[in-house]
Here is the input.
Amino acid sequence: MRPLPVTGLADGGRVPAGRDPAVPNATGRQRGITAPVARAFDAPTSTEDHMSRLQSSRRLSLTAVAGATAVGLIFACQAARPKPTTLASGDAAGRVYVAPGQYDEFYSFLSGGFSGQIAVYGLPSGRLLKVVPVFSQNPENGYGYNDESKAMLETTFGSVPWDDSHHPELSQTDGVPDGRWLFINANNTPRVARIDLTRFETDEILQIPNAAGGHASPFTTPDTKYIVSATRFSVPIGKIKDVAINTYKENFKGTLSFISANEPGKMDVAFQILMPGYNYDLGHAGKGPSDGWFFFTSYNSEGAYTKLEVNASQNDKDFIAAVNYRKAEACVAEGKAKAMPASYIHNYTDPKSRIATATRKTSVKVIDPRDCEGVVYYLPTPKSPHGVDVDPTGEYIVAGGKLATVIPVHSFTKLAKAIADKQFESTVEGIPVLKYDAILAGEVQKPGLGPLHTEFDGKGNAYTSMFISSEVVKWKLGTWEVVDRMPVYYSVGHIMIPGGDSKKPWGKYLVAMNKITKDRYLPTGPEMAQSAQLIDITGEKMKMLLDFPTIGEPHYAQAIPAGMIKDKQVKFHSLAENTNPHVVRAESEASITRVGKTVHVGMIAIRSHFAPDNIEGVQVGDTVKFHVTNIEQDWDILHGFAVLGQNTAELILQPGETRTMTWLPKEEGIYPFYCTDFCSALHQEMSGYIRVSPAGSNVPLVANISAKARAQLAGGDDKDKARARGAR
Ligand code: RUQ
Ligand code: CUA
Here is the structure.
């Protein structure tokens, strides 16, 4: 260990090298209290020695049942109160116990629902590992608050700081989750996002034009060529938007968007398909024999625009739209799509500078099915279907008719034949409607009440969530017989089996995501956290293993074996590759610069100080931009930065990253700033002051420099200098 270059402490004390609290980093170098020299600020004896000043420097069919159903929807949870027996039995505890220091088998990604985020849990323990901010600002790490990430929340409506996220979807290769990316949709202001799974960070967000309520999203094709987004609410599309609501049937349309998703930074709407004005709800891609097709549920074939609860629950059947997207591609190539003016925003965070930029797009290709024969067919499906799920073989298309008394399953083979034989019962706006009996593979009889979503275990079994009867029902593909039921608490929505919507499910666990919690946990006032339940599906009978609370409302989830992700994790950002224009790679590069009424402070954070840590010459009326770089090159060593009275945020800095905080000092005085992340034994010492003078004051703009920086500037710290130099 090299000697510490301690040149002096404010109290005149000296910390012996043996008591240096800093942990040696990967390179064995000591970090810590090496050079926080705060000398007499106002009394420099020589510019070089005591006070180098960095000035101006360097920057859910039963018609009869419908009414009863509505009641059921409301009382579902009370009807299914638990008998506090037979729940977790036998070895349940042992099945979920992950010993301290041991890793979980799976990473699971649960949608944060109305929180707009994603929560990452380890399975089988149910431990919360991380919240990944996506569509909402996140005070845990500054996403959407700091200058660099703000643009991620930009839309054509301006900044949307809190949205509703529903369906996480892992990228796939050959129909199997591959662990590269996770996608998720924003439901309210329709958008899709890409999360990079080497950093668990949202890198890209694309707004969807001609859409309102991006619910059937962002399900992927087996090769991740496209992810999709379908509009939940039909709206007027095109130039005339100001129409009477009662002109719904003439003017309101739906759209199905196919978004190219294969290349980070290049997400874009490849094409949209103009659809009748129904409500498009969920979707899933075909695979195997049905590869090249995409299936979307729709409800409200009634075209209701008021009291949908009753008016959109009249028809015995609604539709699943089966889209031949290869046909759509061909029509686009043949020039059969129309370019429609549209305004939507694409946001992307450059991985090197970690700066987000928002770019406006102005046009989108729209296919009218009348101009592209064979691109879409309607599959009549009972009743007000919600989920649509394709089994691992790609042959069966299962619908969750939320008002249906059966679970209808369509056959892809029959579908293809019905198309070839033109077994149509009618046509809706250019879309042929296939005959139900011609495409039906089978119906699961008496499955329960309120089927919503189905997942598969890869062993020929399907599991469907029953919202009203609050249970998960296991049934057999091909025979359609119900073989098991498991009550869940309460009112289950989506269920998830790792890989359960793919070609190769890892059919070991099932997670039930329940909408209502009530008495499952210690009461926490009127609002309880929503609840997930972990079920063992390895045996003939399902076994309840665990309850765990969730963040927001977990609509859907995805999970993948830990081994497919864990070894690819980025541990810190390379300082040398940091291209943020305000990066400061070494203490000696710290700076303070005035550009009119804006003061830029180029600052570093390292265990256990900031440099500079004394700043003067800022005036009321100035805008101060703190560009802080965490120059640590070591895993999980973060620093924070907060200034008294700061309105926008704190900063939290990952190792090697630069973040900017904008501060508007309103009153003269002395403002302390400090590190908000307990980083080291001398974390409490990691602080500084900034002096604010009245407007027009003649206090010169100055920032101090640490002994370390001095040494660097003088050539005394060769390693840092070499690093600083190498970085350029
Ligand atoms: S939803 S409870 Cu937003 Cu996927 Cu079905
Ligand atoms: Cu840096 Cu605490």
Remarks:
- The CA atoms of residues 272 and 366 lie 5 Å apart.
- Residues 63-79 form the longest helix (17 residues).
